[in-house]
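Example for tutorial group B:
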């Protein structure tokens, strides 16, 4: 919005404030302004269609509207006839954010006018469907959506209308969940996110969303899949891995996971050649659970010397120093890291290049995983 238009809007708001006494009065004024604006824009579209106004003068209306001005029965037959002109208006009730509005849609004599702002047979102002989809995405039932839309906008929507709007979303979600994947992915991150979701019985409870985020051969990240489960577990992860394999994902070079028990075994069941790398963030977070607040910064700094080491030998020496310094107070940390040491150092030995230098990293993958890179 430019400065001049903003100033006009502020002046109009001052006039509204001086005339409105209640929120309902203000809503009625806004509805009237919306109705007038829609009708004027539709009339401008028809003027462009009839050739009475240029595209530049119509403030950027679709060029398709101008193209319609030279089309019609006369142009198709080549016969001379009276020029196309206005032919009154047709009342039309549309639903929008401000409730129901009855607008006068202009017509032309030839019947060739196709409005772009509110197309023929459309009964909802753009943006209204998005509100219903947002409520649907929140897990609300059809009846809940009907009640909220009526309370907020004063519009009665049928269950059939809501089902039609949400059906397209369901189709898009199903198509995304079952889409085919590339055969080879150098890196895939697996993790579970705990969210509050509505169960089939209508109650809100904690659920786990299983997430698979991959890095493709071009170095770009892509969300491979989302699965909803009761709680994070290796058995459910195996079902997710099987789904990825059925959708075409045949090989993963490095799988980054948290320390969930049995997860590495589940990955090797689906992808025997995949190298497993434990997520350092999860490891550090799990280690700090045993540490008092007074020692948390010092312990975190010593752990960083381990996972930030340039070589495996330096990392092993840092782990030994950590055990000597902290095992008396926190023996579980060093013990846990030693038990998972093979998976912790896997990425340090196999691949150390950041994604921003992906070409170099891809060359490393081609050497380390010879015979598994697609040609």
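The residue assignment follows.
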């Amino acid at each position: 919005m430019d400065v001049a238009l903003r100033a006009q809007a502020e002046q109009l708001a001052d006039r509204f404030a001086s005339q409105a006494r209640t929120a309902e009065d203000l809503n009625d004024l806004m509805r009237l302004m919306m109705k007038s604006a829609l009708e004027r824009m539709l009339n401008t579209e028809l003027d462009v269609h009839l050739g009475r106004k240029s595209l530049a003068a119509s403030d950027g209306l679709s060029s398709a509207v101008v193209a319609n001005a030279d089309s019609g029965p006369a142009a198709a037959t080549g016969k001379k006839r009276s020029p196309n002109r206005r032919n009154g208006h047709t009342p039309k009730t549309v639903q929008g954010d401000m409730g129901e509005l009855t607008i006068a849609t202009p017509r032309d004599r030839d019947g060739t006018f196709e409005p772009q702002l509110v197309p023929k047979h459309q009964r909802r102002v753009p943006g209204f469907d998005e509100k219903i989809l947002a409520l649907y995405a929140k897990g609300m039932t059809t009846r809940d959506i009907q009640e909220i839309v009526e309370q907020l906008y004063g519009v009665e929507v049928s269950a059939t209308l809501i089902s039609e709007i949400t059906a397209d979303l369901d189709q898009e979600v199903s198509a995304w969940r079952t889409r085919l994947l590339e055969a080879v992915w150098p890196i895939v991150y697996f993790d579970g996110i705990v969210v509050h979701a509505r169960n089939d019985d209508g109650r809100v409870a904690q659920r786990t969303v299983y997430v698979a985020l991959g890095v493709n051969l071009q170095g770009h990240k892509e969300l491979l899949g989302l699965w909803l489960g009761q709680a994070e577990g290796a058995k459910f992860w195996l079902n997710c891995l099987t789904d990825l394999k059925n959708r075409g994902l045949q090989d993963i070079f490095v799988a980054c996971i948290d320390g969930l028990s049995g997860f590495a075994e589940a990955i090797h069941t689906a992808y025997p050649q995949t190298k497993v790398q434990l997520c350092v963030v999860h490891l550090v977070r799990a280690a700090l659970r045993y540490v008092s607040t007074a020692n948390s910064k010092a312990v975190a700094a010593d752990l960083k010397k381990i996972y930030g080491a340039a070589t495996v030998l330096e990392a092993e020496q840092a782990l030994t120093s950590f055990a000597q310094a902290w095992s008396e107070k926190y023996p579980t940390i060093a013990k846990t890291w030693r038990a998972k040491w093979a998976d912790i150092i896997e990425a340090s030995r196999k691949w150390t290049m950041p994604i921003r230098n992906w070409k170099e990293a891809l060359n490393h993958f081609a050497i380390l995983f010879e015979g598994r890179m697609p040609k």
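Confidence is low (pLDDT under 50) at residues 55-75, 347-354. Compare this with the pattern of hydrophobic and polar residues in the output above.
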